[in-house]
Amino acid sequence: MGNDQDCPVPTTHSHSGEPNPAAPGWGYATRAVQSAIPRGLGQSIGLPVHTAAAFQFENLEQAQEEFAGGGGLSYARMQNPTVQQLEERLSSLEGAAHTLALSSGQAATFTALMSVCRAGDHIVSAATLFGGSAGLLQNVLPLMGIETTFTDGSPAAMQAALRPSTRVLWAEMISNPSGDVADVSGLAEVAHAAGALLAIDNTVGGAGYLVRPLEHGADMSVQSLTKWAGGHGSVMGGSISVGHGADLSRNPIFTGGGGRSPLALHGEQALAQWQRWLGASQLGMTLAPHSAFLLGQGLETVGVRLDRECATAQALAEWLAEQEKVSAVSYCGLPGHPSYERAQCYLPHGKGAILTFDVPDPSRFLSRLGLLRIAPNLGDTRTLVVHPWTTTHGRVPEEARRAAGVSPQTIRMTVGLEELADLQADIEQAL
Ligand SMILES: *Cc1c(COP(=O)(O)O)cnc(C)c1O
Question: From ligand 1's centre to the CA of 213, what distance in Å?
Fold first, then answer.
């Protein structure tokens, strides 16, 4: 840590939430394996999978109460015990008050943004975004009358783009693929002064292992669980974790309706309840219980995997920077990267497992690889590469592609668990 004194200090009040009252002080690795598993005679030691579509009531009154918004178990579109256990574990790991797990990262991003916006509202976003998020903001939300202004992602630029109707600021904690690290505490100040919320896509932050945006002032930490949480390229999911005390008092969705407004009815839980109603109950983007089981199991090893992946990514980035045929190596753990300083503050355990580099002939390079595989996922146990210019960023306007650090020569790599020497040997022969 080079510049501790300039680093924003994380707040600790939301660090553990109340996931496991028995031991709120447990560290990340302990919570990853111990949270959400009840103790007791005959209790299963892993996460049980509940496949029921519905849950029983004993009488009319119980059913009536549940349908009036009881928040318990009734129908699996809204709540399922396996999904609940995953949500509890995610809350523990992200330092959140509540977590909603959904069927994909896209479902989570859409629900997070739609939960605080209605027709006529405005979003301010960083321009360097995952393609699916850019698609939602550019193509889908406008169909509902919600407009987005794209900025360079700095607090000053976001501040300048604010409107009275701005409800939420959106940025990626560690951007894919350029590795820009968001100034979360600066963005939170801008958002909160304007009566808006700050929502951060923390996918590359690895389920709160590398960084927990809620501790730095964000109101929502959204992620694609498909990536590092699942971790084996075998399952899809997404989640929204919300912090304690998001200020919704200036958002008409939550204040309209007087004494029956969501804020009056649900208080501190209004945002989480609204998101579950919207994303799960109404839109039906429910996570399947088998997927929840795989994701919950993936979370048990996310820190161990990321330690190794980040160490390999750092070593590969340094090695690539020395290769004659390679140019423009981009990794926020390298001193030349624009986010290098901020990464030292926000990412003490590792600088993430994605990096990019330019090669003279990407087509030839990719076709010669024998170990690295060409596939678009992130956070797999296997090292994967893509050519963003023609694939993940193919539909992004050329100027925005270049602003996102993508050129026609760029290769994006998500680093897996293989031996460093084997990865180096494969890259070397392909070059
Ligand atoms: C993959 C990804 C998403 C979308 O998640 P899916 O699970 O693929 O729907 C969102 N944000 C980032 C940064 C991603 O990498």
Answer: 17
Which amino acid does the sequence have at 105?
G
Domain boundaries, the chain: 28-299, 302-430
Split at pLDDT 50, 70, 90, the class of 203 is very high
User: Under 8 Å CB-to-CB from 117, ≥6 apart: which residues?
Assistant: 123, 141, 146, 167, 168, 253
Which residue among 106, 109, 291 is best mutated to probe the pocket of ligand 1, counting the most ligand atoms within 8 A of its Cβ? 106
Q: What is the CATH number of domain 302-430?
A: 3.90.1150.10
Residues with CB under 6 A from ligand 1: 104-106, 109, 130, 132-133, 172, 176, 201, 203, 224, 226-227, 236, 238, 378
Q: By the 8 A CB rule, do 268 and 97 touch?
A: yes
Closest CA to 175 of 211, 244, 142, 128: 128
Mean per-residue pLDDT for 41-69?
Answer: 90
- The CATH number of 28-299 is 3.40.640.10
The average pLDDT across 323-327 equals 95
Q: Please report where in the chains the tokens 């699996």 appear, as a residue.
A: 76
Ligand 1 atom closest to 226 (CA) = 7
Q: CA 355 to CA 331: how far, in whole Å?
A: 5
Ligand 1 atom 7: residue of nearest CA: 105
Could you list the beta-strand ranges (E) of 152-246. Answer: 166-172, 197-201, 220-224, 238-242
State the average pLDDT over residues 121-129.
94
